[in-house]
């Protein structure tokens, strides 16, 4: 264990070395981020999820660096070329780029021009020329003419020497560092359309002749240009001015003397830049900017996903769900309060059949038979027509009728998960079930779908898939554990994300539940096959059991602290259940009396908070949303209309809003507020209900421009910065993804 890592991370994050050391020890023992941040606050000094995850990722990065360092030292040692000075430089390297620069001269190479020149015996000539004090290089080069070695002329000898010098220059670690900085700080992205593809590449029209500094290019444009290049529509260059680069190299390499050997070195510099250094630096800069763009896109995706997963649930209600359609009809299912499928049918209230009387009778019968409390209608094809039909039936006013975003429902319906849940039903029934369950509990249903299919990402197929998966897994795990999971009703997929479980133990819990009936206590969870003490420790606090014998089993209080709470109750002469129902009793508890070596005030305060609201869902309360009546298609839109909408996706350039016309409109960041906005996530969130004004309707291109300004057509006026609003999410302080990106930025 390299203790220097802990010092580095502590300095980068502005925390104590002991906090890093103790956190890494917990992580190495198999503890999860949610568990550490929630139940080990005394050990970590109350680090939150973001800080714990950052420590985990940064320490792993440093460990990977050490592994590469060891491999490089071993390789150079085996070559017999490891000097004390070189070893010192390698041991001091703080980034992979610096490490690879130092290794470059010793790295096994394929056959190069310099290799060929050395085989011809031209390295001594290269050394003489590189000293830059020869006044007559041609006379010296003539000594190396050797037909047997295929060196037939003075120019061939000098060319070979220049090839060797070019390689030396390219392998200079200090020069590469400065050149890398030049490319990043002064480089420019230049994008041009490939001649003859203007019509085919119309969606990349903005980049047909585009220039932008590399260091300020936003992630969405970097990814867009790269995608256009990948699809063979654009040509993309990413370099500084050639003159700036060669002047930098000449300043570092040339001695300043004026003689023929200096001119040979100058020629070698130009060759080195064009043939070796420029392609190498461009590749590095592309990787750097891609990584940076990926991180930003993944951050936006993760935050959007978090907001979507934590959308307000309707709760345990009897729901009638409709997957609307025209020709094939509307698939209709009834779900019980726990999401169980009770019945299914197909109705045809829309064109072309338009059997409205029959469909109306079916809906009324289902509502009455199953005591339906809410009707969920998917927002796809025929959604507005179906909504209007349902609302025309004169159903009791206490029945909620609402639209549900069905993005990804078709992915779920064809998945192995859906086939396992409903082996005897077809895709359409499964899709309708998913729509209904999304209304009841978005988190529980959406964890069954690949996050990339939910529709809240940007360029998700272009970014690093491994990094994306890790970030989204972190986000889902954070949300699931923040909300808590009812162990007796949770699906295998939901249980998989509980701290300490995973797919195998999740399946075992479901299997045990099926064979033995509902769990009666948290202690009974220990009986699940292969669920040992460590897994129980990690998972127990996040699993809930309602109506259990022990009242704390329904709360987020960890079983390891039950004795402590029972002592609090005993000291007051009451029962634990009394503490959970009486604020007056809780106020009598003097927390400092219960501080010990393992339990401090942070944990005690968490316990008191949980006793006041045991097991309460931290998500917002569900509110019914309704689109504007009579506005069902893009053709119904008129510039200037003011409409209700719901935000479906947030990007760096604005937010997409569903206004009920089957095509989301875009509120550009310049129209998100009356004041200046630099980050859309600062002022809006996914699933937020908003009022928008229609600014533009382009039916052929299926584009809708919207505004959230109070006077979008008036004068813009003086804009003031918008401060980022504070958002609390379960078991985290603030915006998990944004804070994580900011912390990582310190050591990029």
TrEMBL record:
Biased composition (Basic and acidic residues): 712-730
Protein name: Transcription accessory protein
Coiled coil keyword on record: yes
GO biological process: nucleobase-containing compound metabolic process; translation
Organism this protein belongs to: Mariniradius saccharolyticus AK6
MF GO annotations: mRNA binding; structural constituent of ribosome
Organism lineage: Bacteria, Pseudomonadati, Bacteroidota, Cytophagia, Cytophagales
Ranges in coiled-coil conformation: 158-185
UniProt keyword Coiled coil, yes or no: yes
UniProt domain S1 motif: residue ranges: 640-709
């Amino acid at each position: 264990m390299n203790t220097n890592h802990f010092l580095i991370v502590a300095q980068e994050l502005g925390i104590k070395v002991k906090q890093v050391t103790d956190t890494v020890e917990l992580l190495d023992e198999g503890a999860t981020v949610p568990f550490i941040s929630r139940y080990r606050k005394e050990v970590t000094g109350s680090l939150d999820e973001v800080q714990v995850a950052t420590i985990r990722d940064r320490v792993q990065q440093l460990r990977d660096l050490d592994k590469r360092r060891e491999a490089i030292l071993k390789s150079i040692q085996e070559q017999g070329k490891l000097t004390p000075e070189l070893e010192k430089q390698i041991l001091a390297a703080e980034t992979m780029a610096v490490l690879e620069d130092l290794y470059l001269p010793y790295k096994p190479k394929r056959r190069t021009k310099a290799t060929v020149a050395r085989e011809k015996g031209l390295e001594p000539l290269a050394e003489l020329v590189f000293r830059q004090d020869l006044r007559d290089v041609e006379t010296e080069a003539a000594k190396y003419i050797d037909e047997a070695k295929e060196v037939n002329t003075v120019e061939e000898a000098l060319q070979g020497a220049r090839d060797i010098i070019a390689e030396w220059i390219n392998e200079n670690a200090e020069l590469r560092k400065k050149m890398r900085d030049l490319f990043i700080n002064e480089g420019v992205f230049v994008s041009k359309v490939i001649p003859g593809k203007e019509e085919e590449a119309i969606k990349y029209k903005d980049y047909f002749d585009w220039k932008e500094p590399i260091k300020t290019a936003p992630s969405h444009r970097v990814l867009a240009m790269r995608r256009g290049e990948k699809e063979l529509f654009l040509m993309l260059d990413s370099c500084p001015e050639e003159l700036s680069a060669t002047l930098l190299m000449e300043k570092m390499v040339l001695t300043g003397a004026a003689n023929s050997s200096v001119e040979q070195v100058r020629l070698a510099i130009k060759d080195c830049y064009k043939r070796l250094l420029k392609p190498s630096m461009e590749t590095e800069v592309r990787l750097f900017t891609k990584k940076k763009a990926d991180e930003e896109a993944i951050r936006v995706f993760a935050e959007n996903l978090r907001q979507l997963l934590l959308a307000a649930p309707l709760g345990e209600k009897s729901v009638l769900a409709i997957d609307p359609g025209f020709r094939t009809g509307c698939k209709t299912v009834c779900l019980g309060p726990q999401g169980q499928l009770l019945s299914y049918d197909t109705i045809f209230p829309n064109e072309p059949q338009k059997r409205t009387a029959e469909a109306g009778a079916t809906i009324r019968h289902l509502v009455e038979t199953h005591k339906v409390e809410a009707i969920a209608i998917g927002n796809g094809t025929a959604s507005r027509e179906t909504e209007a039909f349902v609302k025309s039936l004169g159903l009791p006013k206490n029945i909620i009728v609402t639209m549900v975003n069905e993005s990804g429902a078709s992915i779920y319906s064809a998945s192995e998960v859906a086939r396992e849940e409903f082996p005897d039903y077809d895709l359409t029934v499964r899709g309708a079930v998913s729509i209904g369950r999304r209304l009841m509990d978005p988190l529980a249903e959406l964890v069954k779908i690949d996050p990339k299919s939910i529709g809240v990402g940007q360029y998700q197929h272009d970014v690093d898939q491994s990094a994306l998966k890790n970030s989204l897994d972190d986000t889902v795990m954070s949300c699931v554990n923040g909300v808590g999971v009812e162990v007796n009703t949770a699906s295998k997929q939901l249980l998989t994300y509980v701290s300490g479980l995973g797919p195998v133990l999740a399946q075992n819990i479901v299997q045990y539940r099926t064979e033995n009936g509902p769990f009666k206590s948290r202690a009974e969870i220990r009986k699940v096959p292969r669920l040992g003490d460590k897994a129980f420790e990690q998972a127990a606090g996040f699993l809930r059991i309602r109506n259990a014998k022990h009242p704390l089993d329904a709360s987020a209080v960890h079983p390891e602290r039950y004795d402590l709470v029972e002592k609090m109750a005993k000291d007051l002469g009451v029962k634990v259940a009394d503490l959970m129902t009486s604020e007056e009793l809780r106020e009598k508890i003097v927390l400092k009396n219960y501080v010990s070596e393992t339990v401090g005030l942070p944990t005690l305060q968490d316990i008191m908070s949980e006793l006041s609201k045991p097991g309460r869902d931290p998500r917002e309360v569900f509110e019914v949303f309704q689109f504007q009546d009579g506005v069902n298609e893009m053709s119904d839109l008129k510039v200037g209309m003011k409409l209700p909408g719901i935000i479906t996706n947030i990007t760096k350039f604005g937010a997409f809003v569903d206004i009920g016309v089957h095509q989301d409109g875009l509120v550009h960041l310049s129209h998100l507020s009356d004041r200046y906005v630099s980050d859309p996530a600062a002022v809006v969130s996914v699933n937020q209900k908003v009022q928008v004004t229609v600014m533009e309707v382009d039916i052929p291109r299926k584009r809708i421009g919207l505004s959230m300004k109070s006077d979008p057509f008036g004068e813009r006026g003086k804009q003031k910065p918008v401060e980022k609003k504070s958002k609390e999410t379960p078991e985290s302080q603030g915006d998990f993804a944004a804070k994580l990106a900011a912390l990582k930025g310190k050591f990029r």
